[in-house]
Amino acid sequence: MADFSIGVDLGGTNLRIATVSTDGQLLEKVTLGTKTALGPNHVISEMCDAIRQLSEKYQKEGKFLGAGVGIPGIVDLNTGMLRKSANLSGFEEYPVRTEIERRLGIQKNGARVVLENDANVAALGEQWLGAARGVPNMAVVTLGTGIGGGIVLGGKIWHGMNGMAGEYGHVTLEPEGVPCGCGNRGCAERYASASAILRMAKEAIAAGEAPALAKAASSDPEFGAQSIYNLAMRGDEPSRRIFRTFGRYLGIMLAGIVNVLNLDMYVLGGGVSPAWDAFAPTMFDELRARSLVYAATAPDNALMADSRKEAAALVQKESITARKTIITRALLGSDAGLYGAARVAVLSS
Amino acid sequence: MADFSIGVDLGGTNLRIATVSTDGQLLEKVTLGTKTALGPNHVISEMCDAIRQLSEKYQKEGKFLGAGVGIPGIVDLNTGMLRKSANLSGFEEYPVRTEIERRLGIQKNGARVVLENDANVAALGEQWLGAARGVPNMAVVTLGTGIGGGIVLGGKIWHGMNGMAGEYGHVTLEPEGVPCGCGNRGCAERYASASAILRMAKEAIAAGEAPALAKAASSDPEFGAQSIYNLAMRGDEPSRRIFRTFGRYLGIMLAGIVNVLNLDMYVLGGGVSPAWDAFAPTMFDELRARSLVYAATAPDNALMADSRKEAAALVQKESITARKTIITRALLGSDAGLYGAARVAVLSS
């Protein structure tokens, strides 16, 4: 018997809703498609139906404390509205939090609805139950199509002045580098993301330097970062080189963050993070060379253990007791956001 | 009648000790030379004599709450020892805090001695009484021979895991750039510090591109960043170009910090900060182009007012009420560290 909250991951493709007890058990998870084409009213109705069903189902187990909703975009924490979102068109002018509260009649029973950026809840999830369990100050770097980021300080999400903190993806790494959609040149996510991997592969193919990549690109309709990783793992040198470059720039980015923030732990998540073996060596090389803070606090072992659970236990110990700077992989995968969203509802209640 | 604490600025050249009331009045300031050649015992004795005299003199006015000591170097907050200092040789193995407490008999009367990094106390000083008065989350960037940094979150110094936070000076801006003493290449302080200005001037002179600089360098025995600034203000184009480059790299560095931290205010202090007019235009250009967080939150006016006090009042208002990201100049000069050191003793008592 434990009280519980509900975590929601409102993505551009999937809408996932989970009941999570306050002691961190995922009791039930529902996955729906996000029918953005039908508009925010429809999506929020489906979400609220699921929240209501789950909260009623588990109310005999404990008290329903509230719902946290992770959303890809910039959330206005005061109004509970989305200020900007690339993946949820039509939501920008929609009063998301108010509508959820209204449909659930939630203000009456004391529970709370909290809207939060998806990278922030993923960070909180990893801090609560994942790779950084028990580590008070940490950051998550999400390596996906772009680079997302969340920072947790003292066990709470660091929002910055207006919820925009953690924009690592647009830190300049090469002042005269590759143009970015944000208007800048040389942003981190032009070098250390899935789309950067694809760009580098296309460039290598165009230069005639990568026959295996060229073959895969022309024969595989789903050619992408995963295919390039597979080739790298099979020893294809041009593919390996791409991941080394990825690691190099990720290391430069992390070195800067480590120098500025001096956190206990940096957790790498997102779709590219399983390619750890291919990019981690150059990443650690750059960290040691470019961050005097990292060099002074690096753990003795490289922490590249195969067993993620074992590594996590080790790094938590190193971080907490030995004051070492730990760079490691996320543990919870896409559930990090669900756990974190559920957690944020409890923390703010 | 107000209680008071004592702030100490223990620099490599000067040892300054000030009595500061809890309401922010600097009651008295003593400046001594730091006789590092005579060893830490001697320096700490002189410091303690001055602290004792000042605390006794003002004890009729209010209660002596403690002393804060700002030191250039990495301070171990647990032991109160210096872990590393470039300017105070011989202090690394010396139990600074314990020795001060012992000499002042300070544990008996309930007052406290706090050791703190000098850039951190400067940040706290500007946040308490300077450019960022009333602004909870801010950072100071000290533009001197190198680049120092301090971060204040929620009105308190952000130390990071082991006191090393705020090392902006060694953030990589050019991956293949100018070698730095830290072992890295392309560190910020190789491009946006007094020594960087001098390096660029020497390079321009060696290339035969800067006749006025060459003349000044050969005739002025104290040729340095100040002389180059004077030439820039008199319209010398090679000198102006150096400050534009300085501003460009400072802007790139700040853009990264703004993207990651999303603070309310960034305060530029240190010996080069009075050259604001020469470097601020390119700095703001880069900030707007390279930080989507800054672009979304930049104030309408450029905030380059001549009157520092007026500008400070304006920026505080903008930062606090309009949620604008403010980049501005420090107000307190070298006294920031004294105020902050006095403050840190009160905050931790």
Descriptive report:
2 copies of one chain form a homodimer. With 349 residues, chain A is of the alpha/beta class. Helix content of chain A is 42%, strand content 19%. Chain A contains 11 helices and 12 strands. In chain A, the strands form 3 sheets. A 5-stranded mixed beta sheet of chain A has the order 3-2-1-4-7. In chain A, strands 10-9-8-11-12 form a 5-stranded mixed beta sheet, with helices on one face. In chain A, helix 3 packs across helix 11, helix 4 runs antiparallel to helix 7 and helix 6 crosses helix 7. The mean pLDDT of chain A is 91. At the A-B interface, strand 9, helix 7 and helix 9 of A face strand 9, helix 7 and helix 9 of B.
Summarize the helices and strands and which ones pair or pack.
2 copies of one chain form a homodimer.
Chain A: E1 4-10, E2 14-21, E3 26-33, H1 39-57, E4 64-71, E5 74-76, E6 81-84, H2 96-104, E7 112-117, H3 118-129, E8 138-143, E9 147-153, E10 156-157, H4 194-206, H5 211-219, H6 225-233, H7 237-261, E11 265-269, H8 276-290, H9 292-297, H10 308-322, E12 326-329, H11 335-347
Parallel strand pairs in A: 1-4, 4-7, 8-11, 11-12
Antiparallel strand pairs in A: 1-2, 2-3, 5-6, 8-9, 9-10
Largest interface: A-B, 45 and 45 residues
Main β-sheet of chain A, in a few words?
5 strands, mixed
Radius of gyration of chain A: 21 Å
Mean pLDDT, all residues of chain A: 91
Multimerization status: homodimer
The CATH architecture of the largest domain in chain A: 2-Layer Sandwich
Structural class of chain A: alpha/beta
Through-space gap between termini of chain A: 19 Å
CATH fold label of the largest domain in chain A: Nucleotidyltransferase, domain 5
Helix content of chain A: 40-55%
Low-confidence stretches of chain A: none
